[in-house]
Amino acid sequence: DAESLGFLNTWKDCHGIVQDDSHPVICISYNDARAFLDWLSKRENKVYRLPVESEWEYSARSGTSSKFFWGFEPDPDFIWYQKNSGKSTHPV
How far is CA 36 from CA 42, 52, 59, 64, in A? Predict the structure, then answer.
């Protein structure tokens, strides 16, 4: 979507963040994600889809009732976020 609409930030160049193939994709839309899953499904001859909200919540919380599976506050041992990321993505 961003490319076809002429946006400056796309998955190829998002806010000047340097990335390689080991980093998560950023600056994509829902439609971009769906297009990739359609392409991957055809390529692999399997069905790939985005999780629905309840599936995502269950996965993110790992069956707990806290905000995160480890508790209620961000923990740099588990996630990259604004305070510890250096304003960049990291390999996954």
Answer: 10, 17, 21, 31
